[in-house]
Known about the structure:
Layout (H helix, E strand, L loop, with lengths): L1 H49 L24 E6 L5 E6 L5 E6 L3 E6 L5 E6 L5 E6 L5 E6 L3 E6 L13 E4 L5 E8 L2 E6 L4 E5 L4 E6 L6 E7 L4 E6 L4 E5 L6 E5 L6 E6 L5 E6 L4 E5 L4 E6 L8 E6 L5 E6 L5 E5 L5 E4 L6 E6 L6 E5 L3 E5 L1
Antiparallel strand pairs: 1-28, 2-3, 3-4, 4-5, 6-7, 7-8, 8-9, 10-11, 11-12, 12-13, 14-15, 15-16, 16-17, 18-19, 19-20, 20-21, 22-23, 23-24, 24-25, 26-27, 27-28
Amino acid sequence: MASMLALLGQSQETDEKYKKCRDQIAQLRKEIEAKQQGQVLEVLKTHVRNNNIEILPHSEQPNNRRRNKPYRFSVRKKLPGHFGKIYSLYWSSDGNELCSASQDGKILIWNAHTTNKRIAIPLRSAWVMTCAYSPQGTYVGSGGLDNSCSIFNIKDSVGWELKQPYRELQRHEGYLSCCRFVDENHIVTGSGDASCLLWDIERQTPINSFVEHTGDVESVAVYAQKNIFVSGAIDATAKVWDLREKNKCIATFKGHTSDINSVQWFPDGDAFATGSDDATCRLFDLRAHRQLNIYGAHEIFSTITSIDFSKSGYFLFAGYDENPYCVAWNTCTTEQETTLEHPTRAACLQTSPQGTAVATGCWDKTLRLWA
């Protein structure tokens, strides 16, 4: 009898210890979650502080810095010339030229200062989905429903039209959704076959393959200084990869509820943004491995087609397939700073490397330069 009472007492004592431990764990979990939420803004402030921009919300800014009026972007130049919907555009690294790809089956090379067309490249397939400049401006790459990436040498071209590709990269089994140069001899492609490939352009062969997505890859963005790139796919995930290793996925980021159509690096390379069919843009941090901000969750209900940051990181530009068509978001506060007026879908956009202008491509067959 005495032994049973002793065992019962020990059991009650053990239950009390377990209860205290559970209560302590629950309290610590709450404190950790509260601290993480408080650190989100601090992480954002670190990003923007490193890029020399104002980090305080409007209500906290000193009187001599407070802006009573929102920023406004105006169209400085229009570039008409395409005869079909514009699907993609890309700036040259010096900001003097840009290329655009259209449903009329041509890539046009524009002088951004004079708005004159320098080169026209007729494509074998009019269903083009992407175009890109190489860092030194030697090549322009493009691809689409022909499942291949065509590389054109525009530096050594003579005359108005450039008909013959310099190289053709054929290995994907699905449409080519996006291509981005790493350097003059390497390019990353994303495809509807749910894979990304890193190519040696001269040899026309893939160096590395990256296959972990479970749906079509819609967009890739390269950060060459860190040898990494990010991809977004219709499986609603974004993945960060190491360019130097085959199929090396560094991290997977979730949060969207539908297809990711566009991805873009924050200027410092420690964070990136995504745009999705769920009508939201999201900002993810590599170091914290979590979502920092969400843009347009309860304000806009149309698909996002393309995104890009301003050079400082203050703005996140987003193109939409329906009204309001193009919006500039405040990266820190998630407030809608202003709207860039378009008559119809803004299918593509990009900030110039110098940060002095934003180019948008619209389904009204016109490119616009905003400042």
